[in-house]
Design a protein that fits this description.
The chain is an alpha+beta fold. 22% of the residues lie in helices and 37% in strands. The mean pLDDT is 91. This is Acyl-CoA transferase.
């Protein structure tokens, strides 16, 4: 049986997969080829130390997952990158609770990085921290 954390991260990955033409990977290495629409890699991140309430005993997490966003293009790579970031924000805004699995999902601003690639169009990549607010009665999620 999957843990609450795995269930929520899987639901987040599934939500991100609704963005057309941009594949979503979970915890994988960067592939050699980037699709024309870009690529997203969801990293599990850190659930952090939970806040605890008693009666009933409940653990409240503010889990910080990381979404790596990568585009490759000789022209308009900045526009492609920010368009993909806007799509990510839009799909998350449409389902802030991942169908009721968590209390709130909040993406933060992208931290972009330019990555030159020898002999090919340059990459533009960034990390989007995504904060997942959820509560569970299981201490080890």
């Amino acid at each position: 049986m999957p843990t609450p954390r795995e269930t929520i991260l899987t639901a987040l990955a599934d939500l991100l997969r609704t963005i057309p033409h941009a594949p979503v990977l979970r915890g994988e290495v960067l592939p050699e080829r980037i699709p024309p629409a870009g690529l997203m890699i969801l990293r599990d991140g850190n659930p952090g130390e939970p806040a605890v309430t008693l009666s009933p005993l409940t653990y409240h997490f503010q889990h910080r997952a990381e979404l790596e966003v990568i585009v490759q293009s000789a022209m308009e790579r900045d526009a492609l990158f920010y368009a993909l970031c806007a799509q990510i924000g839009a799909v998350i805004a449409a389902d802030r609770t991942l169908r009721g699995l968590c209390d709130w999902v909040e993406p933060e601003g992208a931290e972009p990085v330019d990555l030159p690639v020898e002999g090919a169009a340059s990459l533009k990549a960034g990390i989007i921290p995504i904060i997942l607010h959820y509560a569970t009665r299981e201490p080890l999620v």
